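Retro notes (design track)

What went well: tokenization of the new backbones is finally stable.
What didn't: we kept losing track of which sequence belonged to which structure.
Fix going forward: every design gets posted as structure first, then sequence, in one message. First example under the new rule, 297 residues:
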């Protein structure tokens, strides 16, 4: 059995997905991203490989994606997260043609075809107000755990409009409304509505064709998902583990790329090639030697 790796280094989390040649998820892991990206990826990859009694020599090809994709020295190549998210989503939901993804530092809308090829996309990476970072700031201000904010917002009976589109000003506006005695759930509902409208506007010109999926860590927030469904007037497709969509897509793309390059020759190119394996193993082991497994946990 041949195995492939997809590694997604985002601003909030680092995700690694191990898939086999049958395009089945064998295992995956998610950890918080620290400033040293290559150590994040190496430690998590080592954990997954050991757990499944595998080593780098069992990996035929690997792709890194996400904003830290160029900082992983032991992968075969780096690919944009736009491409990988489309591939990953279609593995879960074959009928999806529009994808809303909200990560730690950006938000994007992707339109793809039936093969997962990107046809169009729009991205906001200039302002934190439409990202997971905005929700982290909000959780701190309101003293509500990030994981509970979505459910908390569903108690709202009267959402309060949040006018500020900047994280800094929105934070001040939220503090002001709390001081005025506005219920936290009403504030959250209003914030989530503002966020959803902001991200929806990114892809409005694409008209959101076909079924729509919501991916990224923010897709775990039921309050944000509800606001999108109200605006779009349809149910969203959300995976059980929406965080790993990019890493899964990178793993699946690894299979396609390896098969295309090698054209049936399993030893021509990739991590299974002895020369490549020696180079990858040297990089991999050097990082582990400087930062042993679990040293930062």
């Amino acid at each position: 059995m041949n195995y492939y790796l997809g590694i997604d280094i985002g601003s909030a989390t680092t995700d690694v997905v191990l898939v086999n040649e049958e395009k089945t998820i064998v295992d995956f892991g998610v950890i918080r991203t620290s400033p040293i990206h290559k150590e994040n990826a190496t430690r998590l990859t080592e954990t997954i490989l050991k757990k499944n009694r595998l080593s780098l020599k069992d990996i035929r090809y690997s792709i890194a994606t996400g904003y830290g994709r160029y900082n992983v020295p032991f992968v075969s190549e780096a690919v944009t997260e736009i491409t990988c998210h489309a591939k990953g989503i279609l593995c879960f939901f074959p009928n999806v043609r529009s994808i809303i993804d909200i990560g730690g530092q950006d938000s994007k809308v992707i339109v793809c075809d039936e093969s997962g090829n990107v046809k169009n996309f729009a991205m906001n990476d200039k302002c934190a107000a439409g990202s997971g970072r905005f929700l982290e700031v909000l959780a701190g201000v309101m003293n509500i755990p990030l994981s509970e904010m979505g459910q908390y917002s569903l108690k709202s009976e009267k959402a309060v409009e949040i006018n500020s589109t900047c994280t800094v000003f929105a934070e001040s506006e939220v503090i002001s409304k709390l001081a005025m005695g506005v219920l936290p759930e009403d504030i959250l509902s209003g914030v989530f509505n503002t966020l959803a409208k902001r991200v929806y506007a990114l892809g409005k010109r694409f008209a959101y064709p076909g079924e729509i999926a919501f991916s990224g860590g923010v897709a775990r927030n039921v309050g944000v998902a509800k606001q999108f469904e109200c605006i779009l007037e349809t149910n969203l497709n959300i995976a059980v583990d929406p965080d790993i969509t990019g890493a899964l897509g990178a793993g699946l793309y690894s299979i396609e790329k390896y098969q295309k390059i090698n054209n049936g020759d399993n030893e021509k190119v990739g991590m299974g090639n002895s020369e490549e394996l020696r180079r990858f193993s040297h990089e991999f082991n050097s990082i582990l030697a400087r930062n042993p497994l679990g040293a930062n946990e």
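Added context from the reviewer: The longest strand covers residues 13-20.
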